[in-house]
Design a protein that fits this description.
There is one protein chain. Helix 2 (about 115-135) packs antiparallel against helix 3 (about 145-160). This protein starts with a strand and ends in a 10-residue tail after the last helix. Helix content is about 50%, strand content about 5%. The longest helix is centred in the middle third of the chain and has 26 residues, at about 200-225. By secondary structure, it is mainly alpha-helical. About 25% of the residues are buried. The model is unreliable at about 220-225 (pLDDT under 50). Strand 3 (about 35-40) and strand 4 form a beta hairpin. The structure holds zinc ion. General factor that plays a major role in the activation of eukaryotic genes transcribed by RNA polymerase II. GO terms for molecular function: RNA polymerase II general transcription initiation factor activity; TBP-class protein binding; zinc ion binding. Keywords: Metal-binding, Repeat, Transcription, Transcription regulation, Zinc, Zinc-finger. One of its GO terms (cellular component) is nucleus.
């Protein structure tokens, strides 16, 4: 286990110490140069030509982490590290947790740990996140919206706000606001359909949450001097809803795109003022689908948008009366349609 070095004669009069680059490690048996070294176990150096172990018990600099992944079953996964810390949970999740199912003192320890409030808090949060995740999954809402909803929920939870409200209502409100913040707005009725929280409740919690988040944001911007953060959600524009409802109806891109433009024109011009955005969307989809020669009945649209077919026809009549102004050549060209396709009612 010896190592030999050949050293060139040291430079004469060298004032400062420098690494001697002329020194080489070679095998004392073969004296091969350059040496044929191998590092089989990464903690020893072996001569590749004669097999002499030149150095052993070296420090192994390999990582020794575990990921606890499923491939770990055969003990062939050498990495030993857990997940990254989740910013949606409290603390940095570096605690040791004691496994359940033991007896005696271990069982008592397990129970004592379960009583810790920080752990309990995280468990409640996890349950709420799971609920939000499940609701969003079942509702085809993107992950970014679900994560935003979770983040909003955490702000509420951190401030111990809305203590009297049921968690389901707060979750419904957070999902509703998250959808708007991520520019994928859903209507109260759609949120109601998944969360079973009544429209009235959602409307109420939405207003209070909005106020709460805006107030939080002001506080936070004072603290850290940033103007980023919670932006007050603007009310949903009818054109933002056209894409989703259009694809539910099986309309092609041209048609719903034109309906979106028309609904913007209608909103800006103040036609149908006082009617809900949903009625405007429904009437525009009805009109443009007829214009484009792929008509959808008021009943079909009613089933998707969730306003009565009577309302759709009423709104359409108002639009039809103004057709000379609203149905511009641009709209007709965009929809690739014909004004003659438009029905009287
Ligand atoms: Zn050798």
């Amino acid at each position: 286990m010896s190592m030999a070095t050949t050293t060139a004669p040291p430079g004469v009069g060298a004032a400062k110490w420098e690494k001697n680059l002329s020194a080489h490690v070679i095998c004392p048996e073969c004296k091969e140069f350059p040496p044929n070294l191998e590092f089989p176990g990464s903690h020893e150096t072996v001569c590749g030509s004669c097999g002499l172990v030149l150095a052993d018990r070296e420090i192994d600099i390999h990582s020794e982490w575990r990921t606890f992944s499923n491939d770990d079953q055969n003990n062939d996964d050498p990495s030993r590290v857990g997940e990254t810390s989740n910013i949606l949970l409290n603390g940095n999740q570096l605690e040791t947790s004691i496994a359940g199912g033991a007896t005696g003192a271990a069982r008592q320890l397990y129970r004592a740990q379960n009583k810790l409030s920080s752990e309990k808090n995280n468990k409640a949060l996890m349950a709420a996140y799971k609920e939000i995740g499940a609701l969003c999954d079942g509702f085809n809402i993107q992950k970014i919206v679900a994560d935003t909803a979770k983040y909003l929920f955490k702000i509420v939870d951190d401030h111990k706000a809305f203590k009297g409200k049921s968690q389901d209502v707060i979750i419904a409100g957070c999902i509703f606001i998250a959808c708007r913040q991520c520019h994928a707005p859903r209507t109260f009725s759609e949120i109601f359909a998944v969360t079973k929280v009544s429209r009235k409740e959602i409307g109420r919690i939405y207003k209070s949450l909005e106020k709460f988040f805006t107030a939080q944001n002001i506080e936070r911007s004072v603290q850290v001097g940033t103007d980023q953060g919670f932006k007050q959600t603007s009310s949903t524009k009818p054109s933002e809803l056209c894409e989703r409802f259009g694809s539910f109806l099986g309309l092609d891109y041209r048609t719903w795109r034109t309906a979106a433009d028309l609904s913007d024109d209608v909103t800006n011009a103040g036609d149908l003022a006082g009617r809900s955005p949903l009625s405007i969307v429904a009437a525009c989809l009805y009109l443009v689908s007829h214009l484009a020669g792929a008509p959808k009945s008021a009943k079909e649209i009613s089933a998707v948008v969730g306003v009565s077919d009577g309302t759709i026809r009423g709104a359409y009549k108002q639009l039809y009366a103004e057709k000379d102004r609203l149905i511009t050549d641009e709209i007709v060209a965009k929809a690739n349609g014909d004004r003659a396709n438009l029905p009287q009612s």
